[in-house]
Write a structure and sequence with these properties.
heterodimer, A: 223 residues, alpha/beta, Rossmann fold, two-stranded antiparallel sheet, B: 80 residues, alpha+beta, Mth169, Chain: A, 3 strands, EC 6.3.5.3 (chain A), PRibForGlyAmidine_synth_PurQ (chain A), glutaminase activity (chain A), ATP binding (chain A), cytoplasm (chain A)
């Protein structure tokens, strides 16, 4: 069975839910303190939370810890690397994904359900979604305003949309460029997402749309 | 040699600074006629170094700023 590491930094707080969602998707998952090694794992997930209290910039300190060298190695080898919310911020700060996540346009913490349009159904994380499909997941962040110098070079995976899949300013919660909510690297094996798939991985949570992301990742890692 | 270093990191010109906007609005509500208020980050520290300029530049590039969205300036003076 494939095994995923869920990396825990000081201040991480979505590790248990993420571990649970990966298990539900059919893989083994283990929470791993950031000072331990990632060997013996097939994939790595950086979960949400407030690593190092988001001091300096969200994700900045975590991105410069030694364990990230191993995460970079994972990425180079083409194994799956998923960053959720704070994990996404860590991945951009570490230079593993393009762009940066700036403070929300309206300077406050936003916690709510959003609709997302699947822009790319070809990544290892989205192969169980239809391109153009509209899904529901919650967001919870203060720094999710995505910015990139050259958006034409960014592999956009999810975009904030309305229920019908229209991409408009009105449904852009944080001011992100092109309503971008999730991006992948060119190769597709690294994904950063501001919406929380683990919080949409069970019917009683209000949506199961996020579970398919983990199922896609697990299925892909199995090959 | 020991140096006193002061670094200012701010969002690049043209990038929206939400915190600056809120603080600017609050000052305007108090009757002050301010515009284009920005809230940069300020760091000060002492550094033992033979080439402080180079090291401070590297610190900014590697951690204190995100070169994609920030610009920075600094002053370096010897500690007497």
């Amino acid at each position: 069975m494939v095994r995923f590491a869920v990396v825990v930094f000081p201040g991480t707080n979505c590790d248990f839910e993420t571990e649970r969602a990966i298990r539900k998707a059919g893989a083994e998952a283990e929470r791993v303190w950031y000072k331990t090694s990632l060997k013996d794992f097939d994939g790595v997930v950086l979960p949400g939370g407030f690593s190092y209290a988001d001091y300096l910039r969200a994700g900045a300190i975590a991105a410069r810890q030694e364990i990230m060298e191993e995460v970079k190695e994972f990425a180079r080898e083409g194994r799956p690397v998923l960053g959720i919310c704070n994990g996404f911020q860590v991945l951009t700060e570490a230079g593993l994904l393009p762009g940066a996540l700036r403070p929300n346009k309206t300077p406050r913490f936003i916690c709510k359900w959003v609709h997302l349009r699947v822009a790319d159904g070809e990544t290892p994380f989205t192969q169980f979604y239809e391109p153009g499909e509209v899904i529901r997941m919650p967001i919870a962040h203060a720094e999710g305003n995505y910015y990139a110098d050259d958006p034409s070079k960014v592999r956009v995976v999810f975009q904030y949309s309305d229920e019908e899949g229209n991409i408009t300013d009105e449904v852009n919660p944080n001011g992100s460029l092109l309503n971008i909510a999730a991006v992948a690297n060119e190769r597709g094996n690294i994904l950063g997402t501001m919406p929380h798939p683990e919080r949409a991985s069970d019917r009683f949570l209000g949506s199961e749309d996020g579970l398919r992301l983990f199922k896609s990742m697990v299925e892909w890692a199995r090959r | 040699m020991r140096w006193k270093v002061r670094v200012i990191v701010r969002l690049k010109e043209g990038l929206n600074d939400p915190e600056g906007r809120v603080v600017g609005n609050a000052l305007r509500n108090l009757g002050f006629n301010v515009e284009n208020l920005r809230v940069p980050k300020y760091f000060e520290f002492e550094l033992e170094s033979e080439g402080p300029e180079e090291e401070v530049e590297e610190m900014c590039r590697k951690l204190l700023a995100n070169p994609l969205i920030h610009e920075w300036e600094y002053s370096i003076e010897p500690v007497s």
